[in-house]
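Weekly modeling sync, notes
Attendees: S.R. (lead), two postdocs, one rotation student

Agenda item 3: backlog of single-chain predictions. S.R. asked that every request posted to the team notebook include the full sequence so nobody has to chase files. The rotation student volunteered to paste the first one in as an example of the format we agreed on. Action items at the bottom.

Example entry:
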Amino acid sequence: MGRVEQAGKAVAELGQNIGDYIRQQRRHAQISLRQLARLAGVSNPYLSQIERGLRRPSAEILQQIAKGLRISAEALYVRAGILEQREGGPVVDAVLADPELTERQKQVLLDVYQSFRRENAAARPADQEPEE
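Predicted structure, as returned to the notebook:
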């Protein structure tokens, strides 16, 4: 497979991954496709195409969808490949994606989590690898 085909396949997979993630978050929030489309200010068919991986949304559309889902836009940007994943991996993603937390609560939790990680890294011998 050539480089162009590989790049095209990677973009298609990103679109599918972000669509799956949006669908999962929408279902978790118990919001219908139609409701989320209205909240995000996009058409019902367009949102459906995003969820099915047929369309790759812009950062602006992702922000609108995140607002409609009441989750962090950053979590969607990471899933879409627009931003690199922050240090901390799945813990950070889970906190950012939790619709039950306010933005302020998410930031406080992440600050505490990062302080624990820094503290543990400082206490770890230089030759010891961190556990994931």
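Discussion: group reviewed the output briefly. The first helix runs from residue 3 to 28.
Action items: rotation student to repeat for the remaining queue; S.R. to check formatting next week.
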